[in-house]
Amino acid sequence: MSIDNEKKMFYRNVFVLVIPMALQNLINVGVTSADVIMLGRVGETALSASSLGGQVYFILNLIIFGLTSGAAVITAQYWGKGDVGTIEKVLGIALRVALAVSILFTLAVWIIPRPLMQLLTNDEDVIAQGVSYLRVIGFSYVLACLTMTYLNIMRSVERVMIATVVYSVSLVVNVILNAVFIFGMFGIPAMGVAGAALGTVCARVVEFAIVIYYAKRKNDTVHFHIRDLFVKDKLLNADFKRYALPVLLNELAWGMGMATITAIIGHLGSAAVAANSVTQVSRQLAMVVSFGVAGATAIMLGKAIGEGREEQAKVYAQRFVRLSLILGLCGAAVILCVSPIARHFLVLSDQASEYLRYMMYVMAYFCVGQSVNTTLVVGVFRAGGDTRFGLVLDLSAMWGGAILMGALAAFVFRLPVPWVYVFLVSDEILKLPFSFKRYFSYKWLKNITR
After folding, report:
1. DSSP one-letter code for 412
2. How many other CB atoms sit within 10 Å of the CB of residue 232?
3. Which of 405, 138, 129 lies closest to 260, judged by CA?
4. CA-CA distances (angstroms) from residue 406 to 24, 125, 153, 355?
5. pTM (2 decimals)?
6. Strand runs (DSSP E) across 302-369, as ranges?
7. Which range, of 32-36, 375-379, 435-439, averages the lowest pLDDT?
């Protein structure tokens, strides 16, 4: 095959994988945006309560993402090798862990919702509304985690459209029911922040129902078997722990870091929390394609390595890194365009609006670093079985750098909120030189199949 034809095939495959995953990311942002927009019309307290209460699911979501990303390190390479039986066993192990973790989080938000909110803010009004949000949203955790685990494993074997369908339907259900429950329609009393939680619970039920139908009736490639929940393959369990555990810990470290950053901002006042809520949704919007590219990177490189085409994997990695830089710059442009629109549309205090303006400028350069780092760490390195580097990187750059500096800036030196924010989100820039050094060493390139 000529080089030109090979490149055309490569980018065609990228397009086929990225577009559905980007749509999935966009849909997930749409769900969050619907909450922000609707609750932003209710008031800053409701918006802040939803944002801070959502940090519990944010951490849970990252644990499951880490679990499934680690599992995908294995399944993508076995997909290249053509070993479907092993993939089904890995799916069973991942679902077993996801079920256990989601039950623990559900019990936590039902038993100790107030202490959880007190970790994130000292505003009593926000805490009270956050508690009502957590008690309702807890019903969605188990269903959401099982759905996410199944769909992410399917993504690693190039079955990406089912997730797009599931989350598209979920978005429609969520937006409609949010409006009904938050504002009170068709004779239903207005529930405010608890209504947003109830709308999300209903959407998760719909997601799970569609996944069950697909798994039983439509998926003729990778099947789910109840017996795989109890699989006792020692070598496979050892591989799962070796490759999935560092990714899970990595995502947990990153998620706890983001929650800590949110908690620090939460102690700077409701205006800072509201501004950060809008900024984070804008970041998610700007990064939808970049995250899709990172997912495609993990799939295509993992498959190539599993097929024994290591040199081709190096070529693919180079192309993906270039693409991530371009998309990061595009994401920065999106942030700068969204900033004035958000400040005009949302009902924010003058102080919150001013904070938002500064935070959006900071987030613009953050997106460039995050796009490149995510493609390298989540895509390139994990595809090659190098799952520990990301953990070390986040512990050092995020916890030892950004969070430490941000906490000192906020509580010791008492710097203005915009300057505190600069330090709190500096980790993606701090990571870049170390990520590139690891990339050019090619120590990440390993075939882990047996």
Report:
1. I
2. 7
3. 405
4. 32, 25, 36, 16
5. 0.78
6. none
7. 32-36
Contact between 224 and 211 under an 8 Å Cβ cutoff? The reply is: no
> 292 with 25: CB under 8 angstroms?
yes
For residue 143, the model assigns a pLDDT of 94
What pLDDT, in 10s, does the model give residues 408-426?
A: 999 999 999 999 999 999 9
Q: Which of 69, 34, 11, 60 is nearest to 243 (CA)?
A: 69
264: nearest Cα among 368, 165, 378, 403: 403
Nearest residue to 263 (alpha-carbon basis) of 276, 281, 251: 276
- Local confidence band at 437 (pLDDT 50, 70, 90 cut-offs): very high
Question: Average pLDDT, stretch 338-344?
Answer: 83
Q: Give the C-alpha separation, 331 to 277, whole Å.
A: 18
Q: How many C-beta neighbours within 10 Å does residue 59 have?
A: 18
Backbone angles phi, psi at 174, to 5 degrees: -65, -45
CA–CA dist 217, 221 (Å, integer)? 11
With contact defined as beta carbons under 8 Å apart, do 56 and 105 qualify?
Answer: yes
- CA dist list (Å): 445 to 80, 247, 298, 392, 435: 15, 16, 12, 18, 14
The 3-class secondary structure across 181-201, one letter per residue, is: HHHCCCCCCCCCHHHHHHHHH
Lowest-confidence range among 48-52, 61-65, 303-307, 313-317? Answer: 48-52
User: Crossing angle, helix 193-213 and helix 161-183, to 10 degrees?
Assistant: 150
| Residue-range domain boundaries for the chain | 16-441
How far is the C-alpha of 390 from the C-alpha of 69, rounded, in Å?
A: 12
Percent of the chain with pLDDT over 70: 98
Q: What is the pLDDT of residue 219?
A: 86
3-class DSSP assignment, residue 227: helix
Tens-place pLDDT, residues 90-128: 899 899 999 999 999 999 999 998 998 888 777 788 888
Comparing CA positions, the residue from 396, 417, 392, 395 lying closest to residue 406 is 417
Backbone conformation region of residue 416, classed left if phi is above 0, alpha if psi is from -120 to 50, else beta: beta
Token code pair at residue 14:
């990228």
Specify whether the CB–CB gap between 414 and 104 falls below 8 A.
no
**Contact assessment for residue 64 and residue 141, using Cβ atoms and an 8 Å cutoff:** no
